[in-house]
Amino acid sequence: MTEEYGCFIVESDKISTEFGDKIVKAYQDLFDLPVETKRRNSYPSEPFLGYFGQHPKVPLHESVGMQGTAFEAVQRVADLIETIYSLMKSMEDISYIVSRMVFESYDVSGLYEACHAQMNHATRLMKYRGQTNGLEVQKKNGEWVSAGLSPYSFVFTAGEGLMAWSNGRISASHHQVTMGKTGKTRYSFAVFTSIKWTETPEELVDEDHPLQYKAYDHDEYMRYISKTGLEKDPLSLKAFCGVN
C-alpha cells in the first residue's frame, strides 16, 4: 500500500470522542490568540517551524509549527499545553510503531534502533476556514481521491526522507486539502518525523535497485529547500543528494 500510494490509513482507539472535543477546544483557544502573540512562536534557525498566516496567497490558512511544547503562547492557555502534548505523544507512539513496521517489511529490523535514536518530531497545527472536503491524496495515474477518514483514523504519508531511505521503492505522497463552500472551519494536526542522518541501507541496493540518493543531513536539506524555493518540486531531493 505504501509503495503504491505513498500513504496508508491507521485506525486507532487512543482518541476518544471526549478527547477529540478537548482537542478542538484547544485549537480554538490557540488560533483565537492575537496574531502578535502567535508570531512569537518563532524558530529563526529552523525553516518551516513557527507561525504562518495572514498571507495574501492563502488567506484562509493558518498554522503553528512547534518543536516540543515550550511555545510561550501555548503555556498561557488553560489546559491547552496538556491537551496538545497528550495528542503529540499519541501521534509519536503511532509513528514509532509504523516506522518499525516499515523496517520489518524490508527485512532490516536490526537497523531500527539506530534510526530510532536519531528520530525527531515536529508538530504543526493547522486551521482552514471555509472548507470541509478535507484531505485528498494523488494516485499514480494523477487522479485525486478523498482519504475518507473516520474520527479515529490517521493518515501516514511518506515523505522524501522515506523515499531516500527506501532507495526509491516508496514515493513521497502528494496530498492536498480542498476547499468547500459551507464556511465550516477545519482543524488539522500533523506530526513530521525525520531522521537526522538519512542513508539508504545497503540491503536495499542491488542490480535492480541501484543507489539513487547519497546520505544526507535532514537539517541541511531543510535549509536548502527554504532558500531555493523547491519545497514543492518533486525533484528537489534529487537535486540535493541524487546519484547521477
TrEMBL record:
- Look up the signal peptide feature and give its range: none
Q: Which UniProt keywords apply?
A: Iron, Metal-binding
Task: Give the InterPro entries listed for this entry.
Answer: DIOX_N (IPR026992), IPNS-like_FE2OG_OXY (IPR044861), IPNS-like_sf (IPR027443), Iron_ascorbate_oxido_reductase (IPR050231)
* Non-haem dioxygenase N-terminal domain sequence ranges: 3-54
Tell me the Pfam families matching this sequence: 2OG-FeII_Oxy (PF03171), DIOX_N (PF14226)
Give residue ranges for domain Isopenicillin N synthase-like Fe(2+) 2OG dioxygenase.
130-193
- From the Swiss-Prot or TrEMBL record, what is one GO molecular function term? metal ion binding
- What is the protein name given in its UniProt record? Uncharacterized protein
Q: Which organism is it from?
A: Kalanchoe fedtschenkoi (Lavender scallops)
